[in-house]
Amino acid sequence: MDRVDIGTSKPSARKVDAREQALTGQIEQAQAEIDAMVAHLGELHEAIEHLRITRKTLLSLADEPGPEPAPPPPVVPDHPAYPQVLDAFADLGRPLRTRDLCQALDLPIVKKNTENIRAKLKRLVNQGILVETEPGMFAQPRSHPNC
Question: Are 86 and 76 in contact (CB under 8 A)?
């Protein structure tokens, strides 16, 4: 702003100069506050956009079907022979026939023992604890390649 000498005295000109400086300072301060508010406004717009993206993502995930819940683990029958049978499968780590299991359990291979063990193996198959890979061949599901 150009100063115009209107023929006034020096004290009046000093007052105008002082007032001009004060107003200039207020303008600079107001402009700094405006700049800070504009920056803050930009941050708020960015935060809202992030929330919108998050909402959209959450809603799309809620619409997707989740994985099927895992079935509860099968319950081993309450008889001391069953843990021994399962331990033998775990120790040997391969499919077994009834005769092989009798040998692993140190049982004499007689009809009574093999039929008793076969019945226990069939019960474990029915409960999903073992699988029968072929007639008379039993295995734990994780050791069977087709499971």
Answer: yes
Host H or E run for residue 66: none
Nearest residue to 98 via CA among 136, 140, 131, 135? 136
Sequence letter at residue 29? Q
pLDDT digits (tens, 9 = 90+) for 18-57: 999 999 999 999 999 999 999 999 999 999 999 999 999 9
Kindly report, residue by residue over 72-120, the tens digit of the pLDDT: 878 888 888 899 999 999 999 899 999 999 999 999 999 999 999 999 9
DSSP H helices in 68-130: 81-92, 98-104, 111-126
Beginning with the edge strand found earlier in the chain, give each strand of the sheet holding 96-97 in spatial order.
96-97, 137-139, 131-134
Q: Is the pTM of this model over 0.85?
A: no
Would you state the structure tokens that stand for residue 98, as one six-digit string?
């009834």
Contacts 24+ apart (CB under 8 A), 126-131: 127/74, 127/75, 127/76, 127/77, 128/74, 129/74, 129/76, 129/86, 130/89
Name the β-bridge partners of 97: 137
